[in-house]
Structure formats: C-alpha cells, structure tokens
Amino acid sequence: MKKTFLVIGLLSLLSIPTSLSAQSTLKQAAVKHLDTKSNYLMTTGVSHYIAPMIMTAAEMRKEQGSNLGKFELVIYGEAVKVFYKNPKAKDLLKQAKKANVDIILCEFALKKFEISKNDLSKQLKYVDNAFKYSLNAQQEGYIALGL
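^ Intracellular sulfur oxidation DsrE/DsrF family protein, sequence as received from the core. Prediction below:
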C-alpha cells in the first residue's frame, strides 16, 4: 500500500514540470499567433458568390488594415466561366484588386470547359487543383471557408 502511494506521489511530482512546460508552450503559441497576420482562403464553385466574397474581403481589410494577411479566392467548377468573355469580369477584377484579393482559378475546371489562360486577365492566378490547394493552404495555417 505504501509503495502504491509512493509511486503515485512520484508520478504526480514528475508531471508538474510537464504541465508547466505545456502551459508555457501554449502561451508562446498564443503570443506568436497574435503577432502574425492571418491569411484567408475562400473557395467556391458558385458564380454568384464571387462578388459577395470579394466584398467580405474588402470589409475585413478595412476593419483589420495591415493586420490582415493574404486573402485568396479560389474559383472552381462552372464558376470559372465568369472570367471568360463576360463583361462582369472586369468589375470583379477591379474590386478584387482594390481589396488586395488574389483570384485564383482551378486549371482542372478551365480544361473541362475548354477555356485557355491566354483568353483571361493577366491579374488572375492559377492552381492545378482547387481542392488540393485549399487543403495545402490549411496545413500552412490559412483560415479557409468553402462555399
């Protein structure tokens, strides 16, 4: 019985520095997070969500100013057609530039709908696969929202 209490007592003492170390590590991580800018990524395959997404980014940039990091919109599926021979594309790109938002199109979708990058604005960026890009960005610490 005494041995059991002795073992429990020793284990309790050994766990105290670990707990303090874990708390210190969490505190350091929280401070580091506050010192870094948050990067955001929004994805959509729905064309009529693009304008509200840009507006959301603009509002966040206005509120957070230089504390806001990158803001990327990744467009996939049929929504990529919005930027191909569409008069609305110019206005969307203008709004995105003003809000410092990168618009990224999925090359897989462009190929599916037979849209050449040569026929699109130079302002646009591209990724091979929108879903993979989103997952990788989340692993890198981006805050992601898919609509």
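The chain has five helices and five strands.
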